Amino acid sequence: MGGIFSFIHKEVQLTTPLPESNRYLITKKPACVVIYFRYIGTGYHGLQYNEKVRTIDSDLFEGLEKSGILPEGSYKRRGKIAWNEASRTDAGVHACGQLICFKSYEICDMECSQIPELINKNLPSDSTIKIMSCLCTNSPFPVKDFATHRKYNYLLPLHVFSSTDPDHLDYLRQKICPLFIGQHNFHNYTNGTPKTYKGAQRFITDFTFGDVFTINGEEYVLFYIRGISFMLNQIRKMISMVTAASFNQVTPEEVSRSLTEETCRIQLLPGDGLFLDQIEYEEYMSKLKHPNPNNDIEFRAWRPVIEEWKQKVLFPHIAQTIKKTDVFRSWQKNCLLQFPVQFVKE
Question: Any idea of its EC number (predicted)?
Fold first, then answer.
């Protein structure tokens, strides 16, 4: 993970005060441990199990096993430790507030506050992962199953659109993006999924993008996407469809048709600008009378730190990667404009 991406390992000083530590004392075996962490996904093949390539999982298990929190070989026995990931990310995708949980028999008589730094010290020296905090309980907490919503962002260079005129951006924001909100059939927005597959029905609560802003002299917009769950490549194809609408490849009516059982071909947007922002647990949090570091599964006190990290680390990294690879201009020329959205007659 060196070369052009080596700059991401440089330490950036964050000035936002860190939240209060979790002083919960682990007294019983096994303990259910929930880890809250962030990472730059460049160079990794996603958050997944794959022994042949470097993944976020492989770095995490190295840190967990070397620190003694999990026994050696746990990577191959994930079921026995009830390993659970809140939201998988694909190759190259980043995360601001990711969550995993597992069972550990190795950490009795330890405070939760000791765990993050213990893992961080034992991660690979070039790892981009940062363990921020954790929760420890005696009861299982499957972070994937208990999640109510997932929030993603996508940092898109403004030049990907056909025009930077404010009226044109308002058209995309007001007439195209809202078409995705609600429950729809997203079989066209993933790979190899039959149009009648029930799992292709997904519910989107928010889909829009903000005002234009500048990073290192280049203009960008930030997309905001919130839903219960997402299919493989779904978000990247949703934003790809917005860019297609920008070039008048599709009308609002055709965008709506793409969310039915009709079949259409949509180009896959590069993953470089995509990152997981937050996992939400509304049902669980609504039952808490007094959220504190011992029970706040959303780690809300960390949001100011995350926001500073995005501005100082993540956004500059994405912008520098895009500038070095010129991936979006290449995609626009060789994919979007050469192979426009096409409806297939069956």
Answer: 5.4.99.12
Residue (of 314, 271, 325) closest to 38 by Cα position: 314
Q: What is the DSSP string of 262-281?
A: -EEE-PPPPSTTEEEEEEE-
The answer to whether the CB of 266 falls within 8 A of the CB of 235 is: no
Q: Is 342 left (phi over 0), alpha (psi -120 to 50) or beta?
A: beta
pTM of the model: 0.93
Exposed (0-12), middle (13-18) or buried (19+): which is 93, by Cβ within 10 Å? buried
User: What DSSP letter does each residue of 203-246 carry, written as one string?
Assistant: EEEEEEE---EEETTEEEEEEEEEES---TTHHHHHHHHHHHHH
- Which of 228, 222, 281 is CA-nearest to residue 99? 281
CB 279 within 8 A of CB 142: no
Q: Determine the residue type at 77.
A: R
How far apart CA 38 and CA 313 sit, in angstroms, is: 11
Which is nearest to 158 in space by CA: 328, 344, 335?
A: 328
Closest by CA position to 208, among listed 179, 168, 250: 179
**Spatial contact of 89 and 98, defined as CB atoms under 8 Å apart:** yes
Distance CA 186, CA 256 (A): 11
Which token pair is 184? 């729809």
pLDDT tens, N- to C-terminus, the chain (346 residues): 444 344 444 567 888 887 877 666 676 678 899 999 999 999 999 998 888 999 999 999 999 999 999 999 999 899 999 999 999 999 999 999 999 999 998 887 788 889 999 999 999 999 999 999 999 888 888 999 999 999 999 999 999 999 999 999 999 999 999 999 999 999 999 998 999 999 999 999 999 999 999 999 999 999 999 999 999 999 999 999 999 999 999 999 999 999 999 999 999 999 999 999 999 999 988 887 777 767 889 999 999 999 999 999 999 999 999 999 999 999 999 999 999 999 998 7
In what helix (H) or strand (E) does residue 168 lie, and over which residues does it extend?
A: helix 166-171
Q: Which domains does the chain show, CATH number per domain?
A: 3-146 (3.30.70.580), 149-273+322-344 (3.30.70.660)
